[in-house]
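Page 42, continued from yesterday. The earlier attempt failed because a stray header line got pasted into the input along with the sequence. Redoing it now with the clean sequence only.
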Amino acid sequence: MSPPPHGEAETEEAVPELRQDPFTREWVIIAPGRTRRPHQVPEPIADPARLAALDPDCPFCPGGEERTPPELWRLRGADGGWAIRVVPNRYPVLAARSGPVRHRVNGPFVAADGFGAHEIVIETPRHDLDLPDLDDAAVTTVFEAYRDRSLALRAIRPGLVLPFRNHGETSGTSLRHPHSQIVAVPIVPPRSRRRFNLARDYYDDRGSSLHADVTAAELDEGTRIIAVSDHVVAFAPFASTAPYEMRVVPREGRASFADVSDATLAETARMLRRLLAALRSLLGDIPYNYVIVSAPREEDHTYSWHLDVLPRLVVAAGFEMGTGTAVNPVSPEQAAARLRRVMARLADSGR
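This time it went through. Structure tokens are written below.
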């Protein structure tokens, strides 16, 4: 998974730069000089104290199965127990009910029934392991659970299906046991619809895929490339909204992750494991979110699913909230160069 040999130089540009995200048309300010502000980007932190392999008080550990709702999906482990479980979220953001979305209008106010699904993917029986600690095969099976459940949810809940992971308290997680989530919403939110419309407009104007063209441009330039394999490419987005933001994109164009091939699924899982290991080696056990972004099936020819990793290193202040414009104190070129070096070191050590 070696990136192109060019673009290795790391520079510290003091002059801020406005960059536009080609996928959203939103602007980001890249302001490397702000790294000199106290506490703006944390120094590497130590990993937390090692947890116990089994926590009897954890509902996601073996022995706690009766404290979760009934299983939706299970992968059996080599020891006869379970390797991965998928269960409904006990505290869902949407109700697991079937039926059409019924809108209600009261003057300028519009509401709708909260139909949908919210599921938990319990990634391992071990309480003390995180995704970077698992082997490639184990992370691949987590992604197989994402795909299988995405297919099932897509069939019964038109709209968007979103697998995601929160790591660390400030990312939104509430339980330490390694897990991720899948939410199916019966609508296409305006921000998502804007992304799909921009991709369709680009295709109509140029006859090519925006995602494929951006990936080709990143590979050609090289400075933001982190790692490359036969089926996927990892890079720091040109208009990264946060320090060390990473994106994994498939070389094959599929609108939905639910339709991903076995080979691309396995390489995505392997790539993500290495990226998260590099991030932890570089900065410690920092909070982050990752999300697998797909389009509804009608976007097949113009959109490509992708995986975004967003470290939670800076706090949005008044300017960001007032303008909707992110300020990133670490340029994506710097982030990619540092992550490349760490990934190379980990590869040399066999990790």
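Notes: The first helix runs from residue 136 to 156.
Reminder to self: strip header lines before submitting.
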